[in-house]
Every structure is written in structure tokens, then in C-alpha cells.
Amino acid sequence: MVRKANPALLKPLELDEALEAVVGKGPMARGEVVKKIWEYIKKHDLQNPQNKRNILADDKLKVLFNGKGEVTMFEMTKLVSGHMK
User: Residue 32 belongs to what domain range?
Assistant: First the structure.
């Protein structure tokens, strides 16, 4: 059985400036945005070394995370959604 991709994850969405500062110019599909955020997190070594599921925000990510200094992976996805239309 082949699993079909969720069409909502494939639809290109408009990104706001704060999100584009991290992932690049939109429009971009939700799945692609999450992938690029993870590339950014790994490149800048922003995972909490004690708990890899938590992301430590730098200045660019703090804007996306409503000013929070640290968020969980799940929280991150929810907060970033607010920057896409």
C-alpha cells in the first residue's frame, strides 16, 4: 500500500518576512519550510544538547517563536504555521 502525501503539506504557501529570513524566499510548501528550518537549526547548532527535541532560538528564530528562547519540536511547527498563509 502506497501512502499518499497529504496535499496540505504540498501546497505552496506565502511566507512572511520573518520566516523568509530563515528559510529563503517563498512561496513554499509546509513540508519544505519545516525541512529548511531543521537545516538552519543544525547549521547553527541550535538544538539543546541536553534535550535534542528542544530548539534554542537565536535572534531570527525568536521572532518566529513569539519571543521564546526555547521551544519543543512540536511547538516550533505550530508557531511557524502562523507565519504562513
Answer: 11-81
pLDDT by residue for the chain (85 residues), tens digit each? 666 667 777 889 999 999 999 999 999 999 999 999 999 999 999 999 999 999 999 999 999 999 999 999 999 999 999 999 9
In a 3-state reduction of DSSP, which class is residue 10?
A: helix
Count of residues making up the chain: 85
Cell numbers found for residue 51? 534535550
Burial 62-80 (b: 16+ CB within 10 A, else e): bbbbeeeeebeeebbeebb
CB-count burial class (<10 Å; 0-12, 13-18, 19+) for 25:
exposed
**6 is a domain residue:** no
How many domains does the chain divide into?
1
